[in-house]
Amino acid sequence: MDRNHLERCHDIGAAANATQTASAYVSLETEIPEVLYRGMKQFIGAHPHWDQYRVMSSALAHFLFQNGCAERSVVERYLDDLFTRPEN
Fold first, then answer.
1. DSSP letters along 16-65, please?
2. Which of 6, 66, 22, 60 is nearest to 52 (CA)?
């Protein structure tokens, strides 16, 4: 898979939705190693207030922030997840 695949997919989706209002969410499909999937599943089982979408969103925000992304919404998501107390 080439590095521009994500951009092409986004451009296709953007062209199809040009007349619709912008969505706050984008759906992604990816393959991950089974060991990561099992780890995520165990984490979600131990923390029922988390779901797969929150875990993946948090992980992506953490990665982007740690690698220099200065987008305000990414930084806010990273900091919110970093300082949010666990819900019991």
1. HTTTSPPPS---------HHHHHHHHHHHHH-TT--HHHHHHHHHHHHHH
2. 60
CA torsion angle 18 71 6 34 (round to 10): -130
Amino acid at 11: D
Measure the CA–CA gap between 79 and 55, rounded to whole angstroms.
14
Taking only the tens place, the pLDDT of each residue in 5-63 is 556 555 655 555 554 445 578 888 889 999 999 999 999 999 988 999 999 999 999 99
pTM of the model: 0.64
